[in-house]
């Protein structure tokens, strides 16, 4: 999200509002905040975290809990995340002058891609705050206005009522008396509310049913965590009708207690999670229980192994995912302890309790007797495995033979590239460091294996490795990978081991690997030569809705956009492959609302990711295209424009491109833009820097300077800024180095701000989301004199041009050896 407009409207030496760009702490969940703002016109500011900013709307009358009431919400500029904590006075005379008070805050969630829903004009979401709860909608009204207008309204769910935001101001510190008088509802009881009434809860005599179960006994439930029952790991599912078999969900174990109606949630090791997962707390509250103890697993998505990373990313605020607590045991219910009740009876009552489960709760069903069949079904659906439980078993904390887990374990072969020393009583080798072959880096670190060894195997390995190795890694370490290799000896790939794999992290590092076999009979080169079973070939990306019109002025369809990118694939890939990437997606075509996306989202299967630290201090998963299918997946998702970083995903802190964007202001003739490009080239040549030329597909031109081996971003930004400022100072009648609109008529803005960590520039051969379907096109310097505009090349012309072109004007750009080192001292 862009905070340019937020910055432009504020003077941070005059207002206490937070300034963007200041480092913050680690985020936890995606947040929302609603603030009551007494500006020139009193209104509520409604803000949702999308990516690394708060999408914001001004809602004059505030949210209504009545689903039939649709409130106007005027879209305003994005705000920084720190704004969620802002309260107090904005000085009069400043933008938005007046008092700001926090009305409500919490976390929010949506199913699917928030940015895509906003671009389409309908966002369905849930709020988990103190006041605002349940499902909500934001729908673009379709009215043309400088500030887009939306409608905000409540979903018809358990939290719907006739309450208005103005009825809930008793605890809001912003002229409450005046606000309460303005509500005009005329009901004194509503004017004293701080939270809406709780939703109607189910009423059923669960105590009567619980008391009839065998082994049930009256007991008082303590308001504290209880130690959960755990399973022992087995090699195969147990046989016999005395066993029940459940899916082993890949998530976090949570237990829940309800004491006098108060719900609390706890991790397996008794850490309280109640505030971390408010949607789960609210869901259990809706069951209407006075006392209960429940056991389950917190999951995201379907709860398979592939969804575990989504769960982690959702809990850290990096992605949006819907969370569910899958319940598989009932330990206490409304005054009765059920720990001595047979499992099959406990589960039957739990199933009744969840006959119509609230959102975010689910019942974990089971298969009686058929352990191998249950295991095969779970494995086929990519679950982690199964849990087998004695049907007549009681509940007790800790591990026992009454619960057994059988994990779905896949194995793979890796080269051994190092070893760590043993710890504690384990002498010699502690673990082996592993690598997999990689076409770009040769070998890439894949993790470690430290379990599954016999004493004889350890002695055999020590003799084989001997004194080989040094302290420096001999393979590429992926960005963000946890190494934990203190005291390791690294060496070139020496031999092969086969390991069991129980999961892979976002960075490609193994989780909980264990040794299957030592393969001294194999050479690591065998792994490169295809000794491993080849991965099944995936079908090419299918383009849906190929007849949908994307460029209405020319009738160009989504199918034609896909055909264009296929036609230029070998030309566009070198400029974007292996780089952090931002894209512009236009779900309804180039003439409608489009949005900017840089973070990896759930559902992307062909597009890779890299975990990078952002300016605000948090980590996020960025898009990375590795091949043609990754690019086509983004095209299928209505990606039109591709904007890569000036650095690679593997070395994000070192720039290998400098881009000067020559952007003409109103009244600048095209001949002057051409001359400016030649002048920039000449000045760079005087500094012994070779440069290349590209049309932008818009009004101007890009002059691109390759760097090899590259420079730190601070140096690149300083150099680019100094170069632009020098042009503006020596020729102020022609150039300007600031983006101030009122100063730009008749001048060329030398935009150097594309040269910072995280900044992007449009890729060569990328379409632009403008009328005419123009293309950003590399050209030779010899062609500049004949060039008629920055958008001369389009979707139809470029493929024809490539067929008749004899030489790539950017040929050899990656082999140019030049750097900015000599300019770091101000030469």
Task: Summarize the SSE layout with pairings.
Layout: H1 4-8, E1 31-38, E2 42-50, E3 53-59, E4 71-79, E5 88-90, E6 98-109, H2 114-120, E7 122-129, E8 133-140, E9 149-154, H3 176-183, H4 188-191, H5 206-211, E10 217-218, E11 229-233, E12 243-247, E13 252-259, E14 262-267, H6 278-285, E15 291-300, H7 308-315, E16 323-333, E17 336-337, H8 343-353, E18 361-363, E19 367-368, H9 371-380, E20 385-390, E21 398-407, E22 410-421, E23 429-438, E24 442-449, H10 455-465, E25 489-501, E26 514-519, H11 524-528, E27 549-551, E28 556-557, H12 558-567, H13 569-576, E29 580-585, E30 595-597, E31 608-613, E32 619-624, H14 628-636, E33 639-644, E34 654-664, H15 670-686, E35 692-695, E36 701-712, H16 713-730, E37 735-736, E38 748-751, E39 778-779, H17 797-804
Parallel strand pairs: 11-21, 16-18, 37-38
Antiparallel strand pairs: 1-2, 1-6, 2-3, 3-4, 4-9, 5-6, 6-7, 7-8, 8-9, 10-17, 12-19, 12-20, 13-14, 13-15, 15-16, 16-17, 20-21, 22-23, 22-25, 23-24, 25-26, 27-28, 29-30, 29-32, 29-33, 31-32, 34-36, 34-38, 35-36, 35-39
Helix pairs in contact: 12-14
Domain ATP-dependent DNA ligase family profile: 316-434
Biased composition (Basic and acidic residues): 178-192, 524-540
Pfam families: DNA_ligase_A_C, DNA_ligase_A_M, LigD_N, LigD_Prim-Pol
The CATH architecture classification of the largest domain is: Alpha-Beta Complex
Question: Helical residue percent?
Answer: 10-25%
Alpha-carbon distance between the termini? 36 Å
The outline comes out as globular
CATH topology heading of the largest domain: DNA primase, PRIM domain
Q: Indicate the low-confidence ranges by residue numbers.
A: 183-188, 531-535
Structural class: alpha+beta
Side by side, the strands of the main sheet go 1-2-3-4-9-8-7-6
Chain-averaged pLDDT: 88
Total beta strands: 39
Give the count of helical stretches.
17
CATH homologous superfamily caption of the largest domain? DNA primase, PRIM domain
Strand content is: 25-35%
């Amino acid at each position: 999200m862009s905070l340019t407009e937020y910055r432009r409207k504020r003077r941070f030496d005059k207002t206490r509002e937070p300034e963007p760009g200041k480092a913050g702490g680690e985020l936890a969940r995606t947040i929302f905040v609603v603030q009551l703002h007494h500006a020139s016109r009193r209104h509520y500011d409604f803000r949702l975290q999308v990516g690394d900013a708060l999408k914001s709307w001004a809602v004059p009358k505030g949210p209504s809990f009545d689903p039939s009431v649709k409130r106007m919400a005027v879209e305003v500029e994005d705000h920084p995340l720190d704004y969620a904590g802002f309260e107090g006075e904005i000085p009069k005379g400043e933008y938005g002058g007046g008092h700001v008070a926090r009305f409500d805050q919490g976390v929010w969630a949506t199913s699917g891609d928030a940015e895509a829903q906003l671009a389409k004009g309908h966002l369905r979401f849930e709020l988990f705050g103190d006041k605002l709860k349940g499902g909500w909608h934001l729908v673009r009204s379709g009215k043309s206005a400088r500030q887009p207008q939306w409608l905000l309204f409540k979903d018809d769910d358990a939290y719907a009522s006739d309450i208005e935001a103005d009825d809930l101001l008793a605890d809001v510190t912003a002229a409450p008396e005046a606000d309460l008088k303005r509500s005009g509802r005329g009901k004194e009881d509503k004017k004293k509310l701080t939270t809406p009434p709780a939703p109607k809860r189910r009423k059923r005599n669960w105590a009567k049913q619980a008391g009839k179960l065998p082994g049930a006994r009256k007991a008082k439930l303590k308001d504290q965590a209880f130690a959960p029952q755990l399973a022992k790991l087995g090699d195969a599912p147990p046989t016999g009708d005395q066993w029940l078999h459940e899916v082993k969900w890949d998530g976090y174990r949570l237990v829940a207690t309800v004491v006098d109606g108060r719900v609390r949630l706890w991790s397996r090791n008794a850490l309280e999670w109640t505030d971390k997962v408010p949607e789960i707390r609210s869901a259990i509250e809706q069951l209407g229980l006075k006392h209960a103890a429940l056991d389950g697993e917190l999951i995201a998505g379907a709860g398979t192994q592939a969804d575990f990373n989504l769960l982690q990313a959702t809990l850290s605020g990096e992605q949006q995912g819907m969370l569910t607590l899958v319940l598989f045991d009932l330990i206490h219910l409304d005054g009765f302890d059920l720990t001595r009740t047979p499992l099959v009876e406990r589960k039957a009552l739990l199933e009744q309790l969840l006959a119509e489960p609230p959102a975010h709760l689910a019942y974990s069903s089971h298969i009686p007797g058929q352990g191998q069949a249950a295991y095969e079904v779970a494995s086929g659906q990519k679950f982690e495995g199964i849990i087998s439980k004695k049907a007549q078993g009681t509940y007790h904390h800790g591990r026992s033979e009454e619960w057994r887990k059988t994990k779905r374990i896949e194995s793979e072969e890796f080269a051994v590239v190092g070893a760590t020393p043993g710890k504690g009583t384990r002498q010699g080798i502690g673990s082996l460091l592993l690598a997999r072959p990689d076409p770009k880096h040769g070998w890439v670190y894949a993790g470690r294996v430290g379990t599954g060894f016999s004493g004889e195997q350890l002695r055999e390995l020590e003799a084989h490795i001997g004194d080989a190795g040094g302290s420096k890694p001999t393979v590429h370490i992926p960005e963000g990978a946890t190494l934990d290799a203190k005291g390791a000896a690294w060496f070139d790939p020496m031999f092969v081991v086969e390991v069991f794999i129980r999961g892979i992290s976002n960075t490609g590092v193994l989780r909980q690997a264990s040794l299957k076999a030592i393969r001294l009979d194999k050479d690591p080169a065998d792994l490169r030569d295809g000794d491993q079973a080849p991965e099944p070939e995936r079908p090419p990306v299918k383009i849906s809705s190929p007849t949908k019109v994307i460029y209405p002025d020319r009738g160009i369809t989504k199918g034609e956009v896909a055909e264009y990118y296929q036609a230029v694939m070998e030309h566009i890939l070198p400029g974007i492959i292996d780089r952090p990437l931002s894209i512009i997606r236009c779900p309804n075509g180039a003439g409608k609302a489009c949005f900017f996306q840089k973070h990896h989202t759930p559902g992307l299967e062909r597009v890779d990711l890299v975990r990078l630290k952002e300016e605000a201090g948090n980590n996020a998963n960025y898009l990375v295209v590795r091949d043609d299918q990754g690019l086509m997946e983004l095209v299928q998702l209505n990606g039109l424009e591709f904007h890569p970083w000036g650095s690679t995903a593997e070395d994000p802190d070192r720039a290998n491109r400098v881009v000067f964007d020559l952007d003409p202001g109103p009244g600048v003739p095209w001949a002057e833009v051409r001359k400016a490009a030649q002048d920039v080239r000449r000045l760079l040549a005087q500094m012994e820097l070779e440069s290349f030329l590209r049309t932008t597909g818009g009004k101007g031109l890009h002059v691109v300077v390759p760097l090899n081996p590259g420079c730190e971003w601070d140096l690149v930004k300083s150099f680019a800024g100094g170069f632009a400022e020098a042009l503006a100072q020596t020729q102020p009648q022609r150039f300007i180095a600031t983006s101030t609109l009122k100063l730009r008529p008749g001048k060329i803005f030398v935009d150097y701000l594309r040269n910072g960590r995280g900044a992007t520039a449009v890729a060569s051969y990328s379409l632009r989301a403008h009328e005419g379907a123009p293309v950003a096109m590399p050209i030779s310097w010899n062609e500049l004199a004949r060039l008629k505009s920055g958008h001369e090349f389009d979707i139809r012309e470029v493929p024809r041009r490539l067929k008749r072109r004899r030489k790539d004007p950017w040929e050899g750009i990656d082999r140019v050896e030049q750097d900015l080192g000599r300019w770091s001292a101000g030469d």
